[in-house]
Design goal:
By secondary structure, the chain is of the alpha+beta class. It has two domains: about 210 residues, Endonuclease III, domain 1 (Orthogonal Bundle), CATH 1.10.340; about 130 residues, Alpha-Beta Complex (Nucleoside Triphosphate Pyrophosphohydrolase), CATH 3.90.79.10. The protein is built from 15 helices and eight strands. A hairpin with a 2-residue loop joins β1 and β2. The longest helix is centred in the N-terminal third of the chain and has 17 residues. The termini are far apart.
């Protein structure tokens, strides 16, 4: 046990990355980093981390924020339930715990968005609790090391890996042990082409000694990917001397709940304007307004974990404001559009094309 942790710590001391949250024991900062890094690469997460803590330096500041502010700050990271849970938990910590983080993994796990892994990461690094973490990097490292052939992320696989790290964790430096385990998987025991020749554990690694590194961990059958076709209606209208468009807050329990989008018509197949401009869905939006189709974008592909989105943007000039208020459409000036949290797909489109200037000022 001591030999394993010593080899691990020696490797970590020579190879670790200097990341901002590794130089603190503040549970708030560690928590922010852990939530951001869920489903996010470190290189992308660092910029978000700095922006987040600059705007909300402590949990009381974050608890006072609005959901729209937090979603806007989160824009581009995806999995927006993380942002909503972040705000909810900050408010719980302030209102129920006087702004002080619970000091144990068991108590932390009762908060929204904090599961077994995140609670262990916070408790070990902030409060020096002897509790081991298991993330994707640790799963890969330990399944290869121990020759665990249960399907990845199955209960049997997770239990076997958890039992190993529980036995091996360093009592004196549990936080460092956890960081080292994750770092080793991220940098050395990588998914493709792990550096087995220079691995300090090569002589005791089942996968290396049995030449099965490429087949461990054993992956589950691939999840089926759903394809969806989104047709965004980018309306432009002159109002009070300025140019305006329409946004709609997405309220369904779906991928972008709480974000804003252009009015949307979803179809089963790729569609042109003539495929839906006579439909009930379109008529419910446009009503009896006069309009002109100005342009249609190319199809834009946006890949999510379980969904492939195929999107088109239809730029439509209106002669006057829409009269139908049943759809909760918000009239937004082009100057204020950047204040709204938008899905990454729409944000990228606007970064590349901007809002069209359709109306000449007289």
């Amino acid at each position: 046990m001591k030999h394993f942790s010593q080899l691990l710590h020696n490797w970590y001391d020579q190879n670790y990355r200097e990341l901002p949250w590794r130089s603190t024991s503040d549970p708030y900062l560690i928590w922010i980093s852990e939530i951001i890094l869920q489903q996010t690469r470190v290189i992308q997460g660092i910029a978000y981390y700095y922006r987040f803590i600059e705007k909300w330096p402590d949990v009381k500041d974050l608890a006072a924020a609005s959901e729209q502010e937090v979603l806007k700050m989160w824009q581009g990271l995806g999995y927006y339930s993380r942002a909503r849970n972040l705000l909810a938990t900050a408010q719980i910590i302030v209102n129920r715990h006087q702004g002080i983080f619970p000091p144990s993994s068991k108590e932390l796990m009762g908060l929204k968005g904090i599961g077994k892994y995140t609670s262990a990461a916070i408790a070990s690094n902030a409060f020096n609790e002897k509790v081991a973490v298991v993330d994707g990097n640790v799963l890969r490292f330990v399944t290869r090391l121990q020759g665990i052939t249960s399907p990845l992320q199955s209960n049997d696989c997770f239990k076997s890996v958890q039992q190993f790290v529980d036995e091996m964790i360093d009592e004196e430096s549990p936080g460092k042990f956890n960081q080292a385990m994750m770092e080793f998987g991220a940098l050395h025991c990588t998914p493709q082409k792990p550096d087995c020749i220079h691995c300090p554990f090569s002589t005791s690694c089942y996968a290396f000694t049995h030449s099965v590194t490429d087949s461990i961990p054993v992956k589950k059958q691939k999840i089926s990917i759903r394809t969806r076709h989104f047709n965004f209606l980018l309306f432009m209208v002159r109002h009070n001397g300025g140019e305006y468009t329409y946004l709609q807050e997405r309220a369904e329990k779906d991928i972008w709940k709480g974000l804003h989008q252009f009015p949307l018509i979803e179809t089963d197949q790729p569609a042109g304007f003539d495929d839906f401009n006579q439909t009930e869905a379109f008529n419910n939006i446009i009503g009896d307004n006069n309009y002109t189709l100005v342009s249609t974008s190319q199809m834009i592909r946006h890949q999510l974990t379980h969904q492939t989105l195929i999107a088109k943007f239809f730029v439509i000039k209106l002669s006057e404001k829409l009269k139908n208020n049943d759809l909760s459409l918000s009239l937004v000036s082009s100057e204020n559009l950047g204040q709204y949290p938008l899905p990454r797909l729409i944000d990228r489109y606007l970064q590349q094309h901007g809002l069209p200037n359709l109306i000449k000022t007289k």
